[in-house]
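Please, structure for the following, as tokens.
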Amino acid sequence: MKRSILFLFILFHFQLELSLGQEALPYTIFKSNGKSISYEKMLKSLEDADIVFFGELHNNTINHWLELQVFKSLYQKHHSNLALGLEMLESDNQLIVDEYLDGTIQERHFLKEAKLWNNYKTDYHPIVVFAFRNQLKVIATNIPQRYANLVYREGLSALDSISDIGKSYIAPLPIEVDLTLPGYSAMMQSIGGHGIAQKGSEAHLAHAQAVKDATMAHFILRSSNHKVFHINGAYHTQAKEGIVWYINRMDSSKKIMTIHIVEQSQTDKLEAENKEKADFVIVVPNDMTKSY
């Protein structure tokens, strides 16, 4: 009798802890239509994709942890056939990245010489170290910022004037841009800028965004012998525009899956405005701790 009571107490306590843990989970995963889904089922859908995009909020701590968990999970499936692509690394730093990953240079040289974002150590260091320890390829996909700024100041035609070496760090010219795509159209209307300091015309702003998207697509596809997990700002892959649009133009055979992070005051339901932004939309609390 005492054993039965003890067993029931332990079982109740375990269920209570489990219930509390679920309620306190700092994120909820939804399919594009707003139906919730488990992490395990989401992962199952991602496993066969050629490219998985994780559209992040750059300063949100939980989404950086989630990126690492998804990357680790995909590694269990693909092992050395998995590569990590990062918007946060510019293409002209690929040599430095490779030398760090193959042990030619020490990490301190990588940290000093690569053009790393200010939040690298807090937000991206763990996933790069995981790739380093498991000898996985890391792709520096983004256009050098100086060329994005050049486009913003002078327009797309300014890229024609850069050297052949410079052109090797961007998508092949000419770069097609469809300014009617909702993302670029909204950007022109907002004139918010995206990591570009100087002011320019509305079209130049969208063109600067587009050359980033096209360049990231280009360098992802150059590693097409690997499954690629790519991290980028959510806007670059929202509604499967941006990078995804360019990949589909360059190679429509690739199976692409997208993840998109949003912040909401309540995480138990996907708000209407956040539906259809990706194959999977992960909602995190809007009071989540920020890394900067």
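The CA atoms of residues 106 and 228 lie 25 Å apart. Strands lie at 28-31, 51-56, 82-90, 137-142, 227-233, 256-264, 280-285.
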